[in-house]
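Model: You mentioned two targets. I'll fold them one after the other.
Researcher: Yes, keep them separate.
Model: Target one:
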Amino acid sequence: MRPRVRGGMVRADSDPLEAAVNPDLNPELSNRADGACELCGAAEQLDAFPVPPHAEATAEHGVVLCATCLGQARGDAELDATHLFCLQGSAWSEVQAVQILTWQLLHRLPGEAWALELREQIWLDDAARAWAEAGLKGAAASEDQVAVVDSNGTPLANGDSVSLIKSLDVKGTSFVAKRGTAVRNIRLTEDPTHVQGKVNGVTIYIKTEYVKKIG
């Protein structure tokens, strides 16, 4: 039986164990989450998190997270791709804030093919996408900007073309991107060590140390 939030504590009707919940949690958020993290389903150390760029965890703009997911969302800890497999469930949440936070976290996993594929499957209307992207821009603006360069130290920009300097296995696929393959119209990512491009019609993330600018 799923635990329920009552009086600031999570109680399971058939289980005497209790898991602490922030007593100041927004009641609407608490009731909606039903005593579980809205990303991974954990029932311990629950707290509210405002989905960026919003600063207040209201019922509309907030989500309930466990300590592990909260650390991932805040950026306090290095992203754990294994733990974040839970996003494969939250991606289909009917709660817009949960779905947008899921999209943002997937965007921060550029080296994971499954994350890219899942993010592309999430449909957001124009307003929701604007919210999701604004949260990413806000995070980027708060960090020191690092130049994106190829293997030779040449600056890269959106729309550039690059060539692979070594053959690369493409995660989640059965093909190898061979040395010398041209990747055109690349896009920069949040991570200055990766660029996004298409090889054989598949969108992939490539380490900048494995490319050189051409054209």
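Model: Target two:
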Amino acid sequence: MECIFRLGLVTAGLFLVIPYVISQTEQNEPANALISVCMSDERPYSDFDFVLGSWDFYAPDGNKIGEQVYTKREQGCLITEEMKFTTGHTGFGMSFVDPETGLWRQIWMSPMYYVDYSGGLDESGAMVLEGTAYPNNGGKSTPIRGVWSKQVDGSIKQEFLLFSEKTKTWDILFAGFTRPKID
């Protein structure tokens, strides 16, 4: 019990000391050393900027099924996505360039799925992310691929595919188009 108490004190102490150490380090760094590279137009940081803004989401048959808002935050290092379907379902995503891999990574959460995937632009300029979808009901996880393709009319085609172990193919889970929101 004493060991656990001491560990708790050490852990709490670290949470108190780390901000102080970071603050002291920042004071000793040149002013431009802490400027975020995420705000630059350099690749890969600007690769996913085409999704920024407010969008209406449509099924392939043209019926509006929801709204999305993509916002750049944290000095450009994070793109958040808020999804609201006309059914009342919602979802929230966070996309960022993983400093460890240099790839775009998205963490998505909805009442049905938690998704963690990563990737980048393909040769056609589409953002392609692959990873795993985890059903929130405890079901079996499955490989997932998300594709965001800019269209000539300004819309974005979005496709989400699940990999079938049985057929060894990517099958469409969900597809649609986003168009700039008209107020």
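Researcher: Noted. Anything on target two?
Model: Confidence is low (pLDDT under 50) at residues 3-25.
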